[in-house]
Specification:
Shape: globular
Largest sheet: 8 strands, mixed
Number of helices: 11
Structural class: alpha/beta
Order of helices and strands: EEEHEHEHEHHHHHEHEHH
Oligomer: single chain
Strand content: 15-25%
Length: 277
C-alpha cells in the first residue's frame, strides 16, 4: 500500500465572488510566485495534500488551492454549466496580485485552459490531461451517466465514485485501493453527487483551435506515458492550437501521477514555474 500524508486542515479558506455571484473558496499557503491549483472530479482542494504535493509546492510558490463550485466550501447554483466554472477559475486568478501560474488537472485542466482566455493575469499555464471533449463510445457512455444519476439519487455516493473510477477513469484496482485508504476518501465520497453533471458536461464542449491562436501564455501540457492514445491525441491537438506550448510526458504514469509519482509531478511543475519566472 502506498503511504499517504494526512491532509492539513489548519489553513483557513478564503472566498472570491465569481461572475454569477457564486462564492468560490481557496486555501492559500507558502510564499513565492502565485500558483493556482484546480482539482478534478469527485474531489476538492484537499486532494493536493496527499503525498505532500501542496506542502512541497508551497516551499517554492504561494499556492492557491481552489474548491471548484459544488465542492468543499465553495457555493453552487441549481443550473450547472461548464462556462460558469471557467469564470470561477478566472475570478480567483484575477483576485491575486499577479502574474499567476495556473495548474489544472483533468476536469480542472479543462477549466484552467478555458480560464486562460478569460484573464490577463497569467504568467504560465500547466494542464494535465484535460477532461474533454468527450465523445460517445470514447470515454462517455449514456448508460454510465444514467447509472451515476441513479446511484447518486439513491444516496449511493461511494458506489457512484467507484463506478466512475473503474469505468470512466479506468484506474487499476491497485490505485483505487490506495485512494480508498487515503485520508480524503470520505471527502471524495461526499463530492460524488457532482459526478453526473461533470461527467456529462464535456460532451457539449467543442474545442475550437482558432480561439486559442493568440493565447501566447507559456503553457506546459502534461500527459501520462501510459495514458490511453485518445488522451495523447487530445493533448497533441491542444499543443497544436497553442502558439507557445510544449508537451512533457510523465513516463510510466497515467492520469494521476500526483498520486503514483508525486516527486516526478512536483519536479515537472516546479521546474516549469522557475523557468517561466
Amino acid at each position: 500500500m502506498t503511504n499517504v500524508t494526512k491532509p492539513d486542515t489548519d489553513e483557513e479558506m478564503e472566498p472570491v465572488t465569481s461572475a454569477d455571484g457564486t462564492s468560490i473558496a481557496f486555501e492559500r499557503s507558502g510564499s513565492g510566485p502565485p500558483l493556482v491549483l484546480v482539482h478534478g472530479m469527485a474531489s476538492n482542494h484537499a486532494r493536493w495534500e496527499l503525498f505532500d504535493v501542496r506542502p512541497t509546492l508551497a516551499e517554492h510558490t504561494t499556492v492557491y488551492a481552489i474548491d471548484r463550485r459544488g465542492h468543499g466550501e465553495s457555493g453552487d447554483i441549481d443550473e450547472y454549466t461548464l462556462e460558469r466554472e471557467f469564470e470561477d477559475v478566472a475570478a480567483v486568478v484575477d483576485s491575486i496580485d499577479g502574474p499567476v501560474h495556473l495548474l489544472g488537472h483533468s476536469h480542472g485542466g479543462l477549466c484552467a485552459l478555458e480560464a486562460a482566455l478569460r484573464t490577463d493575469n497569467l504568467r504560465s499555464l500547466i494542464v494535465y490531461e484535460p477532461a474533454g471533449p468527450w465523445e460517445e463510445g470514447h470515454i462517455y457512455s449514456e448508460a454510465t451517466y444514467e447509472e451515476l444519476v441513479a446511484l447518486v439519487e439513491d444516496g449511493e455516493n461511494e458506489r457512484a465514485l467507484l463506478l466512475f473510477l473503474r469505468e470512466v477513469v479506468r484506474l487499476p484496482e491497485s490505485q483505487i485501493d490506495d485512494l480508498q485508504t487515503a485520508p480524503n476518501w470520505s471527502a471524495r465520497v461526499d463530492e460524488a453527487d457532482t459526478l453526473p453533471r461533470e461527467y456529462r458536461a464535456p460532451i457539449s464542449y467543442e474545442f475550437e483551435p482558432e480561439r486559442f491562436a493568440n493565447m501566447t501564455t507559456p503553457t506546459l501540457l502534461l500527459v501520462g506515458g501510459e495514458s490511453p492514445q485518445w488522451v495523447k491525441d487530445a493533448t497533441n491537438a491542444v499543443n497544436d492550437a497553442l502558439p507557445n506550448s510544449r508537451i512533457s510526458t510523465l513516463e510510466g504514469q497515467e492520469h494521476v501521477a500526483m498520486n503514483t509519482a508525486p516527486d516526478l509531478f512536483i519536479d515537472e511543475v516546479v521546474a516549469f514555474v522557475q523557468e517561466i519566472r
